[in-house]
Amino acid sequence: MTATLQPVTLKDIEAARAVIAGRVMRAPMLPAPRLSALTGAQVWVKYENLQVTNSFKERGALNKLASLGADERARGVIAMSAGNHAQAVAYHAARLGIAATIVMPVITPYVKVAATEAHGARVVLHGETVNEAQERVRELIAAHDYVEVHPFDDPRIIAGQGTIALEMLEDEPKLDCLVIPIGGGGLISGNAIAAKAIKPGMDIVGVAAALYPAMWNAVKGQDRPCGGATLAEGIAVKSAGALTLPIVRDLVSDILLVDESHLERAVNAYLTLQKTMAEGAGAAVLAAMLAEPDRFRGRHVGLILCGGNIDPRILASIMVRELEREERIVSFRLTIPDRPGVLGAIATRLGALGANILGVEHRRTLLDVPAKGARLDVTVETRDRAHAESIAAALEAEGYQPVRIAAGFAME
């Protein structure tokens, strides 16, 4: 497919920039030395998580809403979204005086539902996936004649999202690779068009959740299943866009699939290294670099941190899980004599070894320990993996027969 046949051109994207100027933040793009050291590439991050609704979606939503005529505005708008598009449409519709109805899957994190309602939109929860939510959108349009603001398959949405690449290449012309999350394809399509028009040799890499390889399937002619609980619900779609698929085929050099463990690592890395919030979809691009560092080593890579709307409960869980992966939180199961003072002696010994005790579970009535013995599960905080191993060795030398178990769980 040639550029002249694309539904969106560089001129459209430049026009969109004029529409959103002063109403959507020009998010900062900054070098990320710690991520560069982690991945082996020269990394810059575009912080779209700093938008008012904490997502890039404001760009396309405003560009679309601003194009509506008086009759369309009076009818009201409707959108399907797992969260970020919902908030963007709700926020800018309210600013423009347009009534908005948003259909969201029932599994959408509450933080996104609450934020959407806070902007004045009516939220309808329907279905387990965005595809099921889209079916409800069609029903409501038929019943109420709403104007649809599609999250990705709309030329004005695509053009609005493409304004990110214009800013990135102005801020850092040395970039030779853009890594962009990909669900339905609106974000990557707009930015691929803009980047390739400005710098034809630009390498555009898409990143999808391994559980939802919709665009990967469409481009490669494969039929991997789509479904399951993913941290990256913002890109968890089951079908590629009709407008976006040809653009992706034409301009995107590669689509990488990332698993859930790498998504968790990337969310944690953004928080601990960059001190910024990234939801699963926003962290997907860094996850790809962590999973396939050789693909990017030595390159000048721009990452779009597309959103920061992550459930605080999920974020807390990720942080603890990452500490366990790094063996900075470890649990030992000890077999101990059942007599006074043993628990105190073990606590004192762990303190002397530099371990901070986080939790203890003591059981006597179990058949897998001697009648005069007991089982002790103890979870401790350590400095690193080597420290954890030295603690295990010390406990073994003192006859406690330590067995490593999952941190925080008493495993029967």
Task: List the SSEs and their pairings.
Elements: H1 10-20, E1 29-31, H2 33-39, E2 42-47, H3 57-66, H4 70-75, E3 77-80, H5 84-96, E4 100-104, H6 110-118, E5 122-125, H7 130-144, E6 147-148, H8 155-161, H9 163-171, E7 177-181, H10 186-198, E8 203-209, H11 214-220, H12 244-251, E9 254-258, H13 260-273, H14 280-291, E10 300-305, H15 312-325, E11 329-337, H16 342-352, E12 356-363, E13 373-381, H17 385-397, E14 403-405
Parallel strand pairs: 2-10, 3-4, 3-6, 4-5, 7-8, 7-10, 8-9
Antiparallel strand pairs: 1-2, 11-13, 11-14, 12-13
Helix pairs in contact: 1-3, 1-8, 3-5, 3-8, 5-6, 8-10, 9-10, 10-12, 13-14, 13-15
Report the average pLDDT across residues: 92
DSSP strand content? 15-25%
The assigned structural class equals alpha/beta
C-alpha termini separation = 59 Å
Give descriptors for this structure.
412 residues; alpha/beta; Rossmann fold; Alpha-Beta Plaits; 3 domains; 6-stranded mixed sheet; 4-stranded parallel sheet; 17 helices; 14 strands; 43% helix; elongated
